[in-house]
Please model this.
Amino acid sequence: MSDQGTPAKQRNSDVQRAARLSTAPMMDWTDRHCRYLHRQLSSHALLYTEMVTAPALVRGGAVHLLDHHPAEHPVALQLGGSDPAELAEAARIGAQAGYDEINLNVGCPSDRVQSGCFGAVLMKDPALVASCVAAMRRAVDVDVTVKCRIGVDDQDPHEVLPEFLSRMVGAGVERIAVHARKAWLEGLSPKENRDIPPLDYPLVHRMKELFPNLHLSVNGGITTLDQAQAFLEGGLDGVMIGRAAYHSPADILGEADRRIYGDGVDTSAEDAVRAMLPYIDAHLDQGGKLGQITRHMLGLFAGRPGARQWRRMLSEGAPLPDAGTALVVSALEHIEEAREKQAV
Model:
């Protein structure tokens, strides 16, 4: 749980600083085990949950979707929905569960999101989104933020994005993450929507010029900390990284505290693995399965000697009935042996 004794203004200021670098919410990826791993690599980066739908919380009572470890903070809950009252109640539930920020998804282009009238399709109805976030803000004292696209389908982003951001600012939103691509709701799959529509970073920079007091993070196509630093030095307030932070977490998050926040030392992938061992033991003691955690650890040594064997050992060994931390330790020993061989 977050420190409920800390004044809301101070908590929100701390989260705003954390938002200089954040890991994007990604369905089926950024679950609590993934976030715990990412926290071992960076003490400061803002971590996001997978999207949780407001109906699941309010109507379905699926509060187990909000489970998280105290070490994950600062951590943000992303909600999906389009009903102001229901989103307000879901936000209240999320804040009560201890989340440091509540984020509204206005960017996901999947079919199931469209059928529920939330996600990227809401770019077509900024007035409704403004009503949603205003209701959410009234319900909680933590930051309510938005993650959006630059537009959808045949919209002209240079026209719709300024109008959308203006509506959000009018509703009291102070932080927005912009995925610098359009979403095509017809004709492209969700996967294709992450790669095919061209990126328009200059438009995001232009939005910062138009809304200088709005905390703007850029998302989409960012794969290195060098790129992240360039965006920050170029005037943007934050950078949100998705797939690269997942597939090569040590490369993105291991140096983030020092390079992005000017605080702390680098964390190696090896150190992160060792830090995960007690967490893995606790999970197994509670009846969990090793693969639920190690599937998020496969990319820790991406591009390094021994990475293939690391992935193979975890992928093949984790499903076995007696798989435990001994497997992880053994796989780590192979990484260290490969490093020593390279050094010779």
